[in-house]
Amino acid sequence: MSLNLAFDEQGRPRIGIGSKAFLVNLDVGLPNSPEGLSAGEWEQGAGRDDWGEFAWWRRVYHRGAAPLLSFTIRCYKEAARLEVELLRPLSGLKRSDSFADPVIHAPSFSLPEDLEFLAVTYGLDESGDGYPGGYWPTAVLGRGWGELPRQALAPVVLYSGEGALALAPANWFLTSALARVRGGLARGLSGAVERLPAGFQLSTLVAAGDDPVSALRELGRLLRSRGQPRGMERHPLLARLGWWNAYGGYYTELLRPLNGRELERVVDALHRAQIPLGYLGLDLWYPYQEIGKALRYRSDPRKYPQGLRALRERWGLPYVLHLSALAERNEYGASGGDPGVYRTIARELVEEGGIAAWHDWLRTQQHLTPELRADPEAAERWFSGMVAAFSEAGLPVLLCMHTMGMVLASTRHGNVISARSYTDFLFSLSEALAEAARRGHGELLEAWIPPGKLRSQNLLMGMVLSAFGLAPFHDLFLSRPHPGLGGGRPWEDAVLRALSCGPVGIGDGPGMTDARLVGRLLAGGRLLQPDAPPVPHLPSLKGDLHLYWAGRRAGELIWYYLLILNTTEEECPFELSLPFDLGEHRLWDGYTGRPLERLTGLLPPGGLAYFVVAPERAGVSPFGYQGKLVPAPSEGFAAERDGKGVRLWSDGTPIVVQGKALSIQGENGAPVAAERSDGVWMVAPQRGPGWIKITGR
Hints:
Layout: E1 3-7, E2 13-17, E3 20-29, E4 38-39, E5 43-49, E6 52-63, E7 66-75, E8 79-86, E9 105-110, E10 116-121, E11 139-143, E12 153-160, E13 163-169, E14 176-181, E15 184-189, E16 201-209, H1 212-224, H2 236-239, E17 241-244, H3 260-272, E18 277-282, E19 288-290, E20 293-294, H4 308-315, E21 319-323, E22 325-326, H5 341-352, E23 354-359, H6 362-368, H7 371-374, H8 376-392, E24 397-399, H9 404-409, E25 416-420, H10 430-438, H11 442-446, H12 451-467, E26 471-473, H13 490-500, E27 504-506, H14 515-519, E28 522-523, E29 526-527, E30 535-536, E31 545-554, E32 557-566, E33 572-576, E34 585-589, E35 595-596, E36 599-603, E37 608-615, E38 621-625, E39 638-642, E40 645-650, E41 655-658, E42 662-666, E43 672-677, E44 680-685, E45 690-696
Helix pairs in contact: 1-12, 5-8
């Protein structure tokens, strides 16, 4: 998919794919400037950098007779970099304290009305509008300029039948976004910025793809290519099951605060049930002024008088430890924009037994600290200093209540490995919210979100976060219904988290964990996952039933994990055909592991159907591991075509296979257990892990 750059008769550039223009009338402007800017002629040349060969065009803009700034377009085969550089200082820029009201258009461009878009709201617009500030970044679909959200945006993907372009700021992430302007969009800086120095550069990246998902992934790949390499993909946060006490769990702070005695009850019950836990995710374990404003990161002596370290040593379980915004009068004496304090905080987390920093309330910290909106350098210094401090202490970071600027900035840092995909699980639990209202928290009841909407955003935002190298966290779930709390469809919640490729955590009360369900998520104590998080079938997102799929590729064989989500608040019957050609295959019910003939069913409000589309070779269709929600995982399972059948590698777990008359052999004559029941076979090597060859007769 190649980009092309052309110029109209006024010398204004447009960028497109094939014959289709996507970005039209690219120009640079200063909204506060009483006099316009005059543009010089275009220069052009060629070059090469770490992204490959490019052609470049550059023009200088003047205010009066003096040169003010330059605009350069670097055009690669499948990407473009738009760069605006100030040639002299600028002041008097400030407009309003909002990311949606930028002080500079660098550049702006118009959109053809027939283009469709996938845009993500930034997470923070106006500040000074009360506590806690901001909102969860939300994925929005639409067509044409008139349907663009009013909020600041990053990224934005424009698409049509010709292909897709994905755009995002490529620097100054913490104070940069795309903003809606007349007829199109502008890349700018927060409206709180008052002055900028000479030499200041704003860079915007454009990446092409055949479709929105591939364009977004290319955008993320290019941004990550200039950051630190990832190296924590198998960290316990991503590879092991956790227990959490966040909002929506049994120990939601406003309903039932957790303390050391209650935590002992939880851990003892999990150990008795032989749940292979990898860590504990602890919310609000420290003293705070109010929820969201931490005083200091040490064990709250009222909750954990013996300290967290002593409990870790007793149980052998490390912690993923929660952080908030800092209270104005915190015990560190630090300002909200001080990156240096995080070296002390990182040390304290390690001393308490932490193996990861779960930094929540991030956008609140920026909301409460004016310099983090008004000074681009201070904002970048704060975020990068914080992340570097955790990296030096060996701690990965999980982002929560972040902005999309922080997601983009994370492409530079190898230890930022995950981010929450949407709001708290609590806000889909009507029972829990009703109980909170009875206890005087009526504002929580007003924040209820239908489960279909929550799940839809978790899936769509999960795809976005994954494109930028972050494992999406759908928040904790309850493995069985909890009276007075909710959690009525735990199998659906479990599937969503298993397929997310992100952290998976339960929030059950003592003795309330469904060990059978949890066991379907794990093998050998490790999470079973597909190759990547689910991606949408885009046409389905215009209707009530949304279709997503994730995959597992083993050589020429591919397993597809299909999700059908009812986004409405009513029951919805369905009968669908596969929307794309998956080759020879068999359908299976993902929940029960039974073969099916059709994609059909009845979904409750917000309900989720789950199917496995398994490959078929010469009448042999391997579903995968028996009793697992991800039966053909990306690790611990292998398969390949072999003549008229398949070869399967098992860790010793029985594999379910469909086929009538089968020949089943172990590698080099190794014995294999094979049993047929209800039309399917269960096969497994009898001497531990090994290969099995299965052919049709």
